[in-house]
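Structure, all four chains, one model.
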Amino acid sequence: MDEEGFGMLGRMMVALEEIEGCREFAALIPEVRTNLVYARAHAKTRDDVFAIDGRITVVEGRPRAAGRVRFGASSHMARLIIELRKVDLSVRAGIDFANTPHLTAWLEDHCRTKGWVFSVIDRRGEPEGIKETEGASMPWKVAEAVRMAGGKVPKIFYETGAVGKEPVSVLVGSDPIEVAGQACEIARKYHGPG
Amino acid sequence: MDEEGFGMLGRMMVALEEIEGCREFAALIPEVRTNLVYARAHAKTRDDVFAIDGRITVVEGRPRAAGRVRFGASSHMARLIIELRKVDLSVRAGIDFANTPHLTAWLEDHCRTKGWVFSVIDRRGEPEGIKETEGASMPWKVAEAVRMAGGKVPKIFYETGAVGKEPVSVLVGSDPIEVAGQACEIARKYHGPG
Amino acid sequence: MDEEGFGMLGRMMVALEEIEGCREFAALIPEVRTNLVYARAHAKTRDDVFAIDGRITVVEGRPRAAGRVRFGASSHMARLIIELRKVDLSVRAGIDFANTPHLTAWLEDHCRTKGWVFSVIDRRGEPEGIKETEGASMPWKVAEAVRMAGGKVPKIFYETGAVGKEPVSVLVGSDPIEVAGQACEIARKYHGPG
Amino acid sequence: MDEEGFGMLGRMMVALEEIEGCREFAALIPEVRTNLVYARAHAKTRDDVFAIDGRITVVEGRPRAAGRVRFGASSHMARLIIELRKVDLSVRAGIDFANTPHLTAWLEDHCRTKGWVFSVIDRRGEPEGIKETEGASMPWKVAEAVRMAGGKVPKIFYETGAVGKEPVSVLVGSDPIEVAGQACEIARKYHGPG
């Protein structure tokens, strides 16, 4: 590993510890679990992106990483970050979490308060030819999130509407400690419906 | 804990070790992860059902339990077993795993070879009033699986067709060591499409 | 595994959970760590004795098992229990923990209160020929503990006085839940010197 | 955490992964377990030294960290490194492992081959007044190791001869990846007596 890698790995460990220490975040971990990713400054492939092997799940009511932080440990979130970086190179980190109608409305408000760009990917609009080709969805999804955000990479966005896919929200930023802190702040401020 | 509990917990640990030792099973763990459950002989609620806290996920390419085996650690799979037991009291254990069109076709063949009853729950047929009521789906799903199996509890069944829900397969039996062994045999024999 | 093994494994898991949940016990875990062992009713070798692979260590200030509960996972404590069973077959479980002059004095009092037999193995009395032969110490140590206890297997004993060996205390009983409970009670009642 | 800390933490994680991946090192882990430490460039106290919470133990025949890498997680090894740095500021990392007469003789040869300084601390020479004062041993031990090495900080040294203390060997260097690599090379080359 090189110097960039050592510093990135240290930041990932600190970010992960923040998430594991935030009991409220457990309520935002979806069935498909949460991942936290961090791309090299010149990332080209998923092997340039740190992620958590086995993702973050809920154990004894708290967020817990299933495995180690490794380059290449994520497929979906790593490809998402790499695709977003084609639009904005400052995006290097991201985290995914739950999505419900109630949370979505709350997040939209939260983004307004923070001055963050919010967006949505409605997968019912995805062309059939793309849906059927393994791996082809990502460029379409990112283009859709950016289009719906008026041409910018949004800070938070969600995708919804697919058969057989749990909808999730995504928050992105430049550093895993930043995105972990922002995700934990959301978890502490948000209280579910009812 | 009582004598029944100690023996059940020991059996859960041995069953879990079989799954963790079966590298091929990692390919059958869905995004929503796998759980393994085991109900008391007179189980009434989810607190009478052992399950794995945090479920089983994939770490370093192998199945790995995220947390401990505990009574009450599952909601969905525990309620499924309890509902199935209203039809057949011999059902005490179950495991869920991936579902794809290719695997479904293979499982149907496998069941024929084994002399096992196979069934399906098509959630597109679920009445709207049930879908919208939290927790109301389970009796409908079990009734549907049993109806499609000609009135018997099937050995393997799957549910499919819901927006926002990953489809999964379920295998049930009388003991977690039995169902773990049967699930691992499937994992070793099945090879994905292509 | 057989029926006896399943029940024993369940009891070991419950006993371990009690120890892991007793924060005060962390202060009694020696540098060489703690093990908890449980022998079959007809145990002949260490492979008939459950123990914790990697023993119990202190993580984040709490007792934590390093690995799984397995038959054969202990050498020293397993051989100790097997040797004790030559004197008293009701002894099936044991746990080892710290030993200091202050704790020893306290334990002697505690045993008096409980009506338990207390004993000591002073390894300075061990014949040279035994010390030098790998594995030969155990029969001598058990004979010494029993001799110093007036012919009975003591409930608690300690060994001390060897160059290169950290002294430890041992508590034995018929069941791991019993010995875990008794060890945790000691940990909660005992407060170190000063 | 600051930039130095992030980079150090990343290096600790990589060093730890090397040790965990070296099955042969398990044979060199003493009863008191192994720690790996890494001091800040301007370390003053143990809170400036990274170490492994719960140390490294043997699980399923392999080295395994019990807990997380944290500043302040070691007392003994951290104080040893800080004391050594009073003689040589380039020393920032260290690892401890087993010590037997056979290994000692082998290590002395290995040091000769590598051109490394080897030393010994014979605790039978420790003045009584120092032995009895908690924490007073470390300056004496380091002075003794340096004195026996002709005034230099040795690369490898061991301490022996104390009642109630397991003897260990220590290897030091400037970086945890360096010392982990050197310790694993020793483990792979060394084969125990017989």
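The longest strand of chain D covers residues 93-98.
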